[in-house]
Amino acid sequence: EAQIEVSVLGWTPDGHSLLISRQLSITTSDLLVVDATSGAVNLQVQTGAALPTEATADPTGRYIAVATTAGTLLFLDAKDGHALAPVLQANDGPVLNVSISPNGRYVSTAGQPPRLAVWDTQTYRQVAVSLPLDVNAIEARARFAPDGRLVVTSGAVLRAFTIDPADAWDLEATVRR
């Protein structure tokens, strides 16, 4: 139970557990990994005032990527919840969604204001500067497709980008329409 809000954010790759956020007070939120059959809490990670808006677990079971209302991205160890990287500033406003590439190598974040960032999961660094999107839009959303392309919406625009892992440090050179 939560005092203010509770949300189902996603599933673990094996489909056995739910990723759930709870806001217990204005200054206290957490992420829970809950067994879908028994309801047992297998993992609880405190996130402070930064309410998780979305979470997704990497297909190899190594980490959980968590987007927050504070505009941050968290990389948490999927087994014990410890931080794999410092808290990363992903947006000037809330990060509305987080998506993991099919191979687990990249994570995308998008939110309000409409901005797209891509992160390398081996170094936990942003691949390049954040890409501003439609400045007239309120927000942006992004998801990796099963084929690895990054599908991004912003306002009335939908785009698909290919992220080239051979040149991961220059996103502007690697993003192709």
Keywords:
globular, 177 residues, disordered C terminus, four-stranded antiparallel sheet, mainly beta, 2% helix, five-stranded antiparallel sheet, single chain
Note down, in words, how this protein is organized.
It is globular and about 40 Å long. The N and C termini lie far apart (44 Å). The strands form 4 sheets. Strands 9, 10, 11, 12 and 13 form a 5-stranded antiparallel β-sheet that branches. A 4-stranded antiparallel β-sheet has the order 1-2-3-4, with no helix packed on it. The longest helix is centred in the C-terminal third of the chain and has 4 residues, at 171-174. It has one helix spanning 171-174, and strands at residues 5-11, 17-25, 28-35, 41-48, 52-57, 63-68, 72-77, 88-89, 95-100, 106-111, 115-120, 125-126, 131-132, 140-144, 150-154, 157-161. 2% of the residues lie in helices and 50% in strands. The model is unreliable at 167-177 (pLDDT under 50). It has 1 helix and 16 strands. It is mostly beta strands and 177 residues long.
N-to-C order of helices and strands: EEEEEEEEEEEEEEEEH
Q: How much of the polypeptide forms β-strand, as a percent range?
A: over 45%
In round numbers, the mean pLDDT is 89
Q: What would you call the quaternary organization? A: single chain
Structural class: mainly beta
Distance between the termini: 44 Å
